[in-house]
Amino acid sequence: MYMLRNFLGLLILTFFICVFILLMQFLWMHVKDLVGKGVELSVLAEFFIYAAVSMVPLALPLAILLASLISFGNLGEKFELTAMKAAGISLFRIIQPLVITICFISLGAFFFSNNVLPRSQVKLWTLIFSLRQKSPELEIPVGEFYDGIGGYNIYVGNKNNKTGMLYDLVIYDLTEGFKNSTVMLADSGKIYFTSDNKYLQLSLFYGESFENLKQNSGQKNTQKTIPYRRETFTHKNILIDFDTEFNRYDESVLRDQHVSKNAAELIHSIDSVKVIAHARSHDQSMELIRNKYFGRERVRDRQLKDSAVVNSAEAALPHDIDSLFLSMNEQQQIRSLKNAVDKAKAQCDQVEYNALLLDDSQRYIRKHAIELHRKFTLAFACLIFFFIGAPLGAIIRKGGLGAPVVISVVMFIIYYIIDNTGFKMAHEALWPAWAGMWLSSAVLLPIGVFLTYKAATDSALLNPEAWLKQIEKVKNYSIKAAKAVRKIVDEKRKQQITQ
């Protein structure tokens, strides 16, 4: 109970710290989707909640590693672990309640990634897409052109921040294209939103506008001068479509994506698309053999019709292609070569098109298979990191946030690099999905077994003196081996001399 209480307290603390750090990193990646959009605090809170839930697959293994390192490091530093072993309690018996707890946490991590994570991913990415499409808040700078309003470029010479009045305005209306643009000059003006926040109203005072009257039709203009219209006004209102409301995307757009499915749905989707891909591949291969394979259309048609009477013996005879080609005249040879090239290009295009059709299905299957294996690797990573952190903490015997944090960060970086490498290999179809997603577990599992064995046998894994002794033994062995080889070579030389 003592071990369990200390470990769970550290686990909860380190878990929230890891979630916070990863959440800040995620926020930095999507800061451009949030800044300047003027969204409500409830929308921002929703974004942070869904993002925090999505960080659990990375934060939980790291928290388990850090908590086990600190807890067992504290036990080793205070000689509590030594006292337990002196009392006849083995390391496996000491960590037994923690192992059971980690097993339950691993099961909970699987159910979390299978049931909770898909829903949070759908809501998070739907919210991100909605934020990306929201129009930014209107903040026109002074002394430079502003293109934040679609179809308009606005230049403001001066601005009164208290009244919101703009002075020395130059406006380019590009809604009809660059060659049909309208230029407006105004002494002053003001921009504000309509009551429904769907339109932007631009009120201009004391100015003039220049409009091109020759509409560009895409044909070459033969006139040297182009007519235009000049308008002088004292007050002019322009209504611009500029929706500032926050409109959410429908979550159904992500319904068929791999991030929105649990394990059962992923398996069902993989099996369904595999059947479709297999049938499509079979049809394409049969079509290629029946109609496009080395020009055997007529022979294949005769075989399919079972008409062995009509030139069946002639069709079965092999043809000497060189003799047939040399028997033609020059024009016939050129025509035959052109026909052959055209047929080859057509067949190549057909094969590439079929490959694209099959590649879409294979890519769909790979994404779903990767997501399916990811749900299991998360739970298994929690177990592996405990068996790395607990024995490593017992070996180094350093508690606190010093050495455990450094070791945890190094181990997690190694894990992340290996896991990301396996993911890319699987995503690019260089490896099977199971091999890429289980690569990190296959690499870290032997490390965990080795560290557990060393901790159980009280091995001085990080003792410099022990390593120097091992290096000295290897050095002595290499010297003896070199002397033995030299002795054998000298004996052979003496035998050659005597002969």
Structural write-up:
Helix 3 packs antiparallel against helix 12. The chain folds into four domains: 2-134 and 370-456, no CATH class; 145-241, no CATH class; 262-369; 463-499. It has helices at residues 2-29, 41-54, 56-77, 80-86, 91-94, 96-133, 263-292, 297-305, 312-316, 321-326, 330-396, 403-427, 433-437, 439-456, 464-498, and strands at residues 145-146, 152-159, 166-173, 182-193, 199-212, 228-241. A six-stranded antiparallel beta sheet has the order 1-2-3-4-5-6, with no helix packed on it. The protein is of the alpha+beta class.
- CA-CA gap between termini: 80 Å
Low-confidence stretches: 294-317
Question: In terms of structural class, how would the helical and strand content be classed?
Answer: alpha+beta
Helix content: 55-70%
What's a concise summary of this model?
The protein is α+β, with helices and mostly antiparallel strands.
